[in-house]
Amino acid sequence: MSPEDVLELLKKFKDSSIRKEREIFICMLKNLFEEYKFFAQYPEKELHITAQLFGGIIEHGLVSTFLQLGVALRFVVDALKKPPGSKMYCFGIAALDRFKSRLKEYPQYCQHVASITHFRDFPAHLIEYVEYGQRHQEPQISRALSAAGNATSSVPSSAPGSNKPVSTSTTTTTISKPPSATPIGGRPSIASSTNIATLLVATEKIEKVKIPPESIQDKTAFIFNNLNQMNLAQKCEELKEVLGKDYWPWIAQYLVMKRASIELNFHSLYANLLDQLGSKELYKAALVETYRNIRILLKADKSVGNFSDRALLKNLGHWLGMITVMKNKPIVLDDLEVKTLIIEAYKKGVQDLLYVVPFTAKIMESCARSICFKPPCPWTMQIMSVLAELHSEPEIKLNLKFEIEVLCKALNLEIGSLKPSHILRNDNYKVPGRYQLNHSKRSISESDKSQTIETPKVRDYCIVYLCSAAMPARFYILCVIIGVFDSCYLFLLGPSKI
């Protein structure tokens, strides 16, 4: 039986005229409450089902007395107070998400929830429900859904900076879990698009950065939770007081892995934070950490149900574009080769394209706001020509075509006007550089398996294309920046090359 079936049965037994059924109802509730102390020992799948049932009892008003209601609500709060990512924290978030529409009836309870130290780490739509609940209100988007009778659909949250959907009570809640918690039976975890388990597991294996005391970590989290564009300068000063330069690697890891990878709508704020802090060491550490997490996700298992890693990679692509391309700073080939990454994903198959194409599109979106990299920059147009060829493939998935079309619109390009590269189907084309995806179980053709990977002679260069209509002679300059190991190239193009 599903949780919904059990809840329907409980409702039937509660209002039944048959004494035996009413006694069964009371016994089921009693056993559920007494079982709470053993919830932490439940497997993930069973715990999530129990959370849906527990929250559904509160949602449907099946607790018949104020005492029972208080006990049920207290259990949820106690679970929410557990460390973020723990099994009981996951239980609390899933249960709270189930009865979020009734939070407006419990304003004092909402105040207790809001006082939890890591409240700001909750999913954005639950933060909104709790904050509105303190004022006996429900979020406007939720009221509009109720009026329209669309309670079974998911709608974007209206909260500023929210990048997660406001879902119905039956929708799985988005939360993070610890590295030890793995999906049961190949099913997706209850931690969906913000599950950073892959990043956490990989980080455990590397050399540890210097970690500040727990009190400093709490202060840092508090600063980030209360950060906005208006108090940016003030919070930067507070952050400098709390953290010394010895902790820059840790704050870079925290910023990228715990914030930027899951909080898409705050990328602009966090990029401005790096600028305001004005530390070259911190910027470099954040950039290194960004590339490290991207490489982890590119090399990770790309199973069909692993939607969380796809979302993380897409978010990190957007973040990388903002702190590099948008600021007219190149993506160095030693760190990431965008064009060859697309080709490599195509050779491997559709599953890898589902990761790489959205990731690439998010990086390239920032070119629209860059002086150096906006079209017709050759670096940008080369990547777009490969995407145009991919778009023309008859068997390409529609969602990938849509990603490419949205990117073209952002860059003010017509997909039909782009010249395809004719590289993807060229069996003689050798992917330059090193493999960037996981090739432990290759799905590429035999001819691709036997080819040699060619390492470019110039390992650390990037072409920057400056194009401005305001320049009198309309000079088009391609110049190499960053340190070059072997040699460097300087190209001069005239208007005839455009």
Q: Short summary of the structure?
A:
The protein is mainly alpha-helical and 498 residues long. It has helices at residues 3-14, 19-34, 44-59, 66-80, 87-98, 107-114, 124-133, 140-148, 197-204, 214-225, 232-242, 248-260, 267-277, 280-299, 307-323, 338-348, 350-365, 378-392, 398-410, 446-450, and strands spanning 155-156, 165-166, 462-466, 476-481, 491-493.
Characterise this structure.
The protein has a three-stranded antiparallel beta sheet with strand order 3-4-5, with no helix packed on it. It folds into two domains: 3-166, Serine Threonine Protein Phosphatase 5, Tetratricopeptide repeat, CATH 1.25.40.840; 197-453, Alpha Horseshoe (Serine Threonine Protein Phosphatase 5, Tetratricopeptide repeat), CATH 1.25.40. The protein has 498 residues and is mostly helical. A hairpin with an 8-residue loop joins strand 1 and strand 2 (165-166). The chain has helices at residues 3-14, 19-34, 44-59, 66-80, 87-98, 107-114, 124-133, 140-148, 197-204, 214-225, 232-242, 248-260, 267-277, 280-299, 307-323, 338-348, 350-365, 378-392, 398-410, 446-450, and strands at 155-156, 165-166, 462-466, 476-481, 491-493. Mean pLDDT is 76; it is low at 142-194 and 442-498.
